[in-house]
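Service request form, structural biology core

Requester: graduate student, group of Dr. S.
Request type: structure prediction, single chain
Budget code: on file
Notes: please return the result as structure tokens.

Sequence provided:
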Amino acid sequence: MSRREEYEEKTQQLLAPVAEANQVSVYDVEYVKEGSDYYLRAYIDKPGGVNIQDCENVSRALSDALDREDFIPDAYILEVSSPGLGRALKKDKHLEASIGQEVEIRLFKAVDQCKEFSGVLDRFDKDTVTIREGDNARTFQRTDIALIRLAFDF
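Core staff response, request fulfilled:
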């Protein structure tokens, strides 16, 4: 397990009871470096969406728990937010919850001279993701997918 994965897993464990106490669910946790700064991001959700007060309450409680455990030696910025409308579908639980919804897929390498596809998420397994574009189904290898996210129109 990488250092990043270890930090994310430990943070997820600390976040679970905090989220439950605040009547939200944990969508995802990520630890990333952007420029010279490290960010620990916790994404929370609930039916109808989270509000700023939910984020603030979870942030304060999570920050206290992280200070107590003190397992990340680097300085980092803690962010707690909603995963947003165009949320990335990173985990199987995200894909499962999104079956039948419109998604956008971005590939690492072009297929048929195209790197971006959209359609209704039809099914997935450990190796593939299938979307429907009208009457046509298109299946992608998960290892070829750079990003899957919910599509949204304004």
